[in-house]
Amino acid sequence: MTLFERLAEALHADAPVALVTRLDGARAGAKLLVTEAEAHGDLGTPGLNHAAAGEARALLAVGENAIRTFGEDGEPVGVEVRLFIAAYAPKPDMYVFGAIDFSRAMARIGKYLGYMVTVIDARPVFATKQRIPDADQVIVAWPDEFLAKAPVDARTALIILTHDVKFDIPVLQAALRTNAGYIGAMGSRRTHANRVDELRRIGISDADLARISAPIGLDIGARTPEETAISIAAEIIALRENRRGARLSEGTLPVHNDRAAVAAP
Amino acid sequence: MIDVLDTIERWRGEGQRVAVATVVAVEQSAPRDPGATMAVNERGDVTGSVSGGCVESAVYEEAQDAIASGRPRLVTYGISDADAISVGLTCGGTIHVFVERLDW
Fold it and tell me: What residues of B are in contact with residue A24 (Cβ under 8 Å)?
């Protein structure tokens, strides 16, 4: 089995895999394919292979691609060898709570952006794949109970469209116990003010309350479910990049953030 | 790589030799991030991209040469490059692209 075949197999299975390429010298192009348990290929020396595999697994954890420099035997302070590490982390999760028309549009744009989209609703009549065809999974569960057990990391987006205080408060409480990169909750300013009162009453701090994006989305005047989904998706991107979400034509910052390594998507 | 994977697999199934070009680093503002991949086969078909379209034709030439020679190379494009006028990036910035024949 060639390295490319191993890489293709892992990518098709959405399994974590990193491809390390040596950039310089007579051995430029040498490869090491790294999975969680194994490494295949040869970059030049056993020490270099070992060091590269460790670095590749660290990058897999955060889903970043980067150049790393080592000595010929993998010495961490060396500069002789430049390696490009392409880390293909599994898709990040987007959890959409509430199976409504907005969820259908959100699932669609979530897939488009490269998320693994799960829609969760406690009502079996609404939580069906027929209603949300683009979702990877549609699960019948109480949102807070689902979230207490679901895997969440800094790349995860939590989108709370339940829009009903009896669902919203428990799921927001559960959401704030995670390190999700995005927590958004649909509802008017008045609805959110009521939620904030209730969350404060049960002891949620101001710092935690500030993590909630509500009213949800960027201020683009979205009206339809599709427009609202775009507004939410744009807010997720803007927060990840620490941007304001204003018009580029009216700004002066560089169009793209300057960065050596990048998280995807 | 994921976006070009199916096409590369098809080309290899047809017995085509393939070169891949991968963005390995960007400086300042660049249109595609590290990891962006473009692939070329010996018939001249192209899939994927490494920029907003501004350096693809230059990368294509490097890829054809890599298919023929088997020699990998690291090439740099950008505003500081002597070729800036002919292949300069429309949005400024500099990109470093590793081009290699896919024989692994």
Answer: 74
